[in-house]
Amino acid sequence: MIQIKRLCAVALGATLACAGPAMADANYPDKPVRLVVGLAAGGSADVIARLIAEHLRTAWKQPVVIENKPGANTSIGSRFVAKAPPDGLTLLFTSQSLSTINLYVKNPGFDPLKDLVPVTQVAKGDYVLSANKDLPVDDLAQFAAYAKKNPEKVFHGAGAGVLLMVYEKLAGTMDFKAQQVNYRGEMPALTALAAGEVQMVVSSLLAARPFIESGKIKALAIPAPARSQVAPGIPTAAESGLPNFHTDFWFGITAPANTPMEIRKKIANELAVFLAKPETKQKFLDVGFVAKSSGAAEFGKMIEDSAEQWTAIAKRAGIEPQ
Fold first, then answer.
1. Rounded to two decimals, what is the model's pTM?
2. Could you tell me if residue 161 is left (phi over 0), alpha (psi between -120 and 50 degrees) or otherwise beta?
3. What range does the domain containing 139 cover?
4. Please, are residues 250 and 93 in contact by the beta-carbon 8 Å criterion?
């Protein structure tokens, strides 16, 4: 009888041990969740992250706390999450910068493509190619012709990270060269463009809109297959003779490697419902983005494709990590 009791106890323990992870996934989250943002508070990414955190907080009835950890092309916040336990309680709100960390940071302390796993995309936005308002061009094709004819007169205001990659992609595609002036970000570059210090800048549409709408600079094209929902008056690159020049940027959620798929699916499914709501779509449009969800596999491929594209462009342009 004692032996039978012992066997039953062992069997029961094994059953509970096997059920443990599944039960934990079903109860997720049973503790507060941290949503780490690798950018400074107050920016557009932070606004979107806080909208997401607010919804999850309500849906899960658990605190969802935003932690801003900016710096080093978002690698500081990304590394923090990559080193966290894979329990779904520490998540990364990330951008396309994730796919360029290895191109700018020599020793980031983690592998962005291996130590983080995709959960879902949450938004997408557009870049815009803008020129000084006094430059004698009205579209992208005219700008390329002018730059080829007057290379000594054309200065490109270079932002950091992906923005520089988008410019290099454009210059390589249209076969022109501009003299580069480096700035610490897109806002200083756009301010210099409005002042006539440079003739061309690649930036996010969100950052450029106030300058464009006030007439301080002129938008030449958006590198997207269709006109932006945010600024439909700006033509696409295809309308300027570049039908295959498409690149946009995205925001999404990733988690530490080995985070259970069931937890990742639970997060993605909850956000898919939120992102499909008309009021959510409008809130995102109000800050310059389009709400967009995806499965983990689709989002993971997007990250890998971005990394492959920017790696090739960095190699061609001679950009090396520092």
1. 0.84
2. left
3. 126-240
4. no
